Amino acid sequence: xDLMEDYLWELSSREDLLWPPRLCDIFVDVYxxxxxxxxxxxIFTGHEEAANILRHSMSTLLYCEFMMDxxxxxKAQAQPSASVSPRSPGNQLGPEFPxxxxxxxxEFLAQMSVREGVFEEKWVPFVLRSFWAEARFLMLSxxxxxxxxxxxxxxxxxDYESPPDKQPVTIRITNCKMNDVISREFVQEQLxxxxxxxxxxxxxxxxxxxxxKVVADLLIQTxxxxxxxxxxxxxxxxxxxRHAQLILLQESLWKLKDYSGCLIWGEASLNEALNEYLSVxxxxxxxxxxxxxxxxxxxxxxxxxxxxxLLGCLESPKLTxxxxxxxKLINVQMDVSESSNEMAVPTVLSWxxxxxxxxxxxxxxxxxxxxxxxxxxxAGFGEAxxxxxxxxxxxxxxxxxxxxxxxxxxxxxxxxxxxxxLYLFVDVVMQELSKKSATANAFxxxxxxxxxxxxxxxYGHPHRRGKVKHLQEHNAxxxxxxWDNCKQVFDFFKPxxxxxxxxxxASTVSSELEVLLKSITALVPPxxxxxxxxxxxxxYIDGSVDTFPTLPDTSNFSPxxxxxxxxxxxxxxxxxxxxKAIRYYTLDACLNPDRLxxxxxxxxxxxxxxxxxxxxxxxxxxxxxxxxxxxxxxCFKRALEIDASNSALWIEYGSCVYMLQSNISRQLKKSSQFxxxxxxxxxxxxxxxxxxxxxxxxxxxxxxxxEDCRRxxxxxxxxxxxxxxxxxxxxxxxxxxxxxxxxxxxLYEMNAVYPRRxxxxxxxxxxxxxxxxxxxxxxxxxxxxxxxxxxxxPKDELRAI
Length: 801
Prior knowledge:
It is a single chain. By secondary structure, the protein is mainly alpha-helical. It is built from 33 helices and 2 strands. It has helices at 2-12, 23-34, 50-78, 99-112, 116-119, 123-140, 144-161, 184-208, 212-224, 241-255, 259-279, 283-306, 316-334, 349-376, 381-391, 396-410, 416-435, 438-442, 444-459, 483-493, 511-521, 534-542, 559-574, 578-591, 596-615, 622-642, 647-669, 671-674, 678-708, 715-728, 733-749, 767-787, 795-800; strands at residues 171-172, 181-182. The protein is elongated. GO terms for molecular function: nucleosome binding. Keywords: Nucleus, TPR repeat. TPR repeats lie at residues 562-595.
């Protein structure tokens, strides 16, 4: 131990010389090993122990300095990102640091600092270095108030020991790597930084108490004071107070709803943060200021988004400065190597804010032009402006979106910040298109293509990009579709007019859009989800209840919800997926109980399913067919209650009923095969007659509707089927042959062709229909005459034939 103690003293006596790199660590290790086994001299020891006091004091001082330097160097090498939290960083020494023993060492140094006679000419450096080591320990321990007091003592001692006519005392610690100079300037800088941190903690406490006005007033003063050296943080201090000040000021003004103040001081904060970002060289500090810029831009953006007129609150020089700073920031963001995937300041809000500034200036120019027009009274100026807008270039504010998307898309950055740039792009352009302005008319195709590119980058719609030639693959990270954004997408891609149940297949949505619509339905809020009402409508359709149910009020529902289910039902109906069509038509009927097309689609989907079942070669359950038939007929009735003048629907209703009676006729003809009882046979015959009467009413109603509408396209079909129905009901030949004759007349009026020979694969217009009628007239006539083969037929019926 004596050898180790002598070794430490020999090194301590040479502390003014530059040591080899590993020697400081060896010194610390030896001291730690020796420390538990030595007895230090007391403060009251006599002068005869001066050498022993000097040996122990210098060894302990060097140990404390090396330990602090080791902690600070390790933190600097780790390059932590300083938080923007206003809180002090707390204890940064870690649980393994011997804080208790280290505190005893510092206390020993403080006791020995009164023994000026022992240290002689080394006393002043010893006292200052002891205080400095203690201050660094307290700062790293998070004891800010105590550290401030010690630093004030250091300043006082420097001032006391510095002659007025000479430079202040400066101490250099030779073998420390960081904080190795004790000078009035550096100590003052550290002291001011700690005092600001203390003040910031108090400001944050006021913020948490809700005293936002006091917080804002205090922080605004930091802008009004001239920039001092104290405001610039030392690269090694790593204290994030200024970041937190800027953010707390913005939050306080926002809480106070002082949106103009939030924008004004946000512009000042952006200017300061960007200048700091461009001036610092440390990557850690650049990261800190980058984070601060992102938050300040977010605050500026939400202010402008809240009220775009707030830009008028900025003085012209400040607005110009903000525009220049935004452009400077965009240059910084884009000025990276092609191989880099990271944006220097990770936000695209700079483009959004630049758009708002450009739009603000464009609106000012338009307003001045309008005033000039009204004052000069020149007629036709407005029309000339419109013509110029139609023939001129795209406005700069709109062109900015295309430029931004193109440049950001090359780096796959266009959906950064949760796609906020593309959302604004879509909002602005869709508003322009909805206004049908001169710009929208002149650049309609470009604007539409721009929106489609945005949606492709955001949501990957359409999935098959090859079908849309103008879409580019940016490989940007897609954004999750949310309910708030659904309306934007739906309004753009939905058909201009809702397709009807009897419209062409081309009018329905595409298979790509069907996928998107299904994604949207999965996001419908529970309070607007029609599946909650589905059982009520289903009970009515199935016949469980006879009266139409009373449904909840849907007037406050989103227009998207009121249309999306119908579009899906229409898509599946026209693509012959009838089970899915029934599902979505039913959901739409819950929301729009008076929509004719939904009930018609329901009726036709169910009718087609019944027809497929009847015509299939599989075993049939007649009770199931009749139950489904009842549901289909109820849907037809509901549709015709909504619109009784729809001839197409009457015809479809009649076709369904006629098909059902044909099925019953087949059963009656095979009654012996089915072993039907007399009661069942009688019930079937009665049901057949009811269905024929219903079918007769349907086609008569269809004929009346077509006569009212002066349409004769389907009149021939109505009379043809009325002829068959009246024949089955046992009407006289005069009735059913008259219907068939009228049908033939309508075909003639529709320019039917009567060729000598009909080619099956390419028949002339209405030729097969005419042949069918010709055959039917003769067949029914012959059938009637054969009834009277042995007895004379009534003369009036013969005249009719």
